[in-house]
Fold these 3 entries.
Entry 1:
Amino acid sequence: MSDRELREQFIKYFDDDKYKFENFCKIFLKWLDFDDIQVTQRCGDGGIDLKCNKKEIEQLNLNTIEYVIQAKCYAINNKVGPRDIRDFRGSKTDMSVRKIFITTSDYTKGAIKEADDSNQPVILINGSQLIDFCKSHGEIIFDVKYYFNVDKFNDLFLSEENKVTKDTFKTIERRITKNDVRARILRIPSEYKSLIQYKSKYKISINGDEYKDYKISSDKVYFGGVTKYYKDFISNVDFEEGQSIWIYDENRYIVSPLVIGLLILSKALSTILCK
């Protein structure tokens, strides 16, 4: 939805009750940290719709400044003119009282010039500013649709200092112990911790087989589901130790472990290495 469409629906909301916009402005001023906000009586207000005050230096409780506000819920193309500003400035208030004009539309150039009076300036807030401020409050007012961006998440976790590249790992060798085989686990090199720390499974290719998801242990130490690669060694009393070679596939952002002494090597290497 465009900003203009959002503003149009925002304005339409107040159609059934012209005073509802004044009550919205009360909430809006509260968000801006004004105090003692009051909606004036609905007749004979002299163009003043709300009153409030604000401490200039909150921590020292000094210089409480009084404000009066005029609130106009106008259609987008119905801009506030210089006469509206003059009439508002002429409302019966002390010169020390500051004035704010809030509208859902906008101001003509003449109105902006009129408001810029060095003796008694008028603060102008238009519809676009209202919408932008409401957006900053997220789902309090508007429905916000979020879209998952994989690239942004990758950038978040793989910052420059720990970004995973082919050069980061090159070739990593790890032992496969007899206990690993008995437990049917494939231990993950610590160098890959940044890749898997937020995952419960990861796609890898073992011995040239198709890439598939393997579950990661809760402590991020090993992959499970590798029994079929160990089946010839589980009951082999002569087996002492194997070795895995890990290669990071930069193009696919996945890992290829190659188990030596246990398994036929992956297609990722052109030669067969074994003990």
Note: The radius of gyration is 34 Å.
Entry 2:
Amino acid sequence: MPINRHPAWGEFVKAFNTIARHRHRYEVFRDFVTMSAAALHNAIRKDEKLEAEYLTIATRYKRDELSEFSELLAKLVLLLETEPRDVLGPLYMELELGNTNTGQFFTPHEVSELMARVTYGDELKTLDKPFITVCEPACGAGGMVLAFVNVMLSHGHNPAQRLWVQAQDIDRTAALMCYLQMALWHIPGVVIVGNTLAMEAREVWYTPAHHLGFWHHRLEREWGRAESHSSDSDDSSAIQEEPQPVPINPQNRDTTRPLILSIPKGQSSFDF
């Protein structure tokens, strides 16, 4: 069934259009996404600045409007539970919130899944690594990531155990849309707000699954083992230095976990 025919789709659109009618629709959507993402983040790892931002946004709305935000989040969960797919992106476009001046467009789920199946379907049939990584440098709302998760599930792999994602987008709202959907689907990884080409990281958001699955330690252990194996097996006459993981310590964000920007040899990386 097309996602826009799901009963919760019409309920979401109708409810959204009744919240704070005096405010611009983009502002309301941005606030809904930001508050929802902050709530999920702080449920696992408290960030005082995110909490302050959450409370500041809450002061702009009446109590009943904040309750309607909770209802919107519940409807989003209903829409996401059918399968891993981008829901917020299509909603964003249907509500006509896209920035046409910058060519903002969210890739349809069918196209994203086709790309994932054609490119990596065969490789996932014989997955022989403890886990794989996905690097999405222009993630938008996370459509490509969720499509890849769907393909993994179709091959019998549990993404919560065998996938780690690094997603990034220059648009904060889009990046938080990705974070929200990744968090609800319990996908381990990190979402970065910043310009990928400039190696910029204004904000770093680790998903709840990253913390709950102890992925910081899994990454360090597995990549350290891969680098050690690579050093032992290389011919001494052809030794090449591998780029080391580059940690970023963005201000005002979780700096207790290193952010990996390069993938050591021996660990797959999928760049959409």
Note: DSSP finds eleven helices and five strands in the chain.
Entry 3:
Amino acid sequence: MKLSDLQDYKLGNRMVHYESRDAILYALAVGAKSLETDLVYERDLRVLPAYACALGLWVVEAAGELGVYDRKYSLHASQTLEIIRPLPISGNFETSGKITGVWDKGKAALLDIEVECEYFRASYRIFLPGLGGWGGERGSAIEPVDEESGDSWSGNYVTSPEQASLYRLTGDLHPIHIDPVVAKANSFERPILHGLCTLGIVARMIAEAVGMHPSKLTKLDARLSSPVLPGDVIEVKANRTRTGGSGSMGLTFEASVGRTFVLKSGRATFA
């Protein structure tokens, strides 16, 4: 099987199961505090919507297990999420996955891998260095970011040295986040933070920009432009947009470490 053969490849169905303690672990891994009892206490629990990205990650693993590329040398390039129904406190439901795009970028390739179920639809764009150049389609350009309204917000989050070690317990066991040898083989000085952890941290933070609870997130989209190292300070900037219907709030956002952007072209909707 060649990389180009993966277009529209069906990855099958899988039951996803989690308990309230798993949702709480995710919330803690993306920076929720003990005083945020509705994120970390079973009695009041509201599940963070971005947890869906962790629940659906099996499709990325399934694509890697096809043997067409070495997953150890793949990188997460961007993420989209649409919430259809709020995630329950605990869940046991069927998800389905398929590869929706295979793009030739010359020296590299991109895969778009989608998972969906009754609660959410998510798409993972995976960067495969050194695997382009077969003459395939390059893919469409990035959609323009929504117009900003002028209302801005900023904040920062100090990641802990153990952040990646904790987040991997939510299900993303890629060795680049824990194994120094694999990290160096991918040209990183040490294990990097999961892109979905960075995105989860930021998605939780930016709810403050629109004065809404982070559980009200309904849409999320961002490019994972550069990795965060555990211990880095993530600086976040967000702007209200004019999108969204009655009762919904739109945002554009970006995140950086120093002068390096780690999230670009971010868009989110809360309702």
Note: The chain has seven helices and ten strands.
